[in-house]
Design a protein that fits this description.
single chain; mainly alpha; globular
Amino acid sequence: MENVIDIRKVIMDICYQDGVTRRQILAAYNKKYNKTVMEPAFNKMINNNNIKFNVLIDVLDSIGYKIDIKKKI
């Protein structure tokens, strides 16, 4: 996934590729980081593209993904 600006699309692609749901992603995040984020709040963050960078990093880490930042050429 190159040049992504819509986190909702990224999450949907991950769900499709890995055969998981947002609920399962949230459960993995809450378990790994001992959080209690509720599903409506999580879905709102994703749908509105309004998720903090550090939370996004942790969510992706909890399901085995990471973000690579590269300089434009």
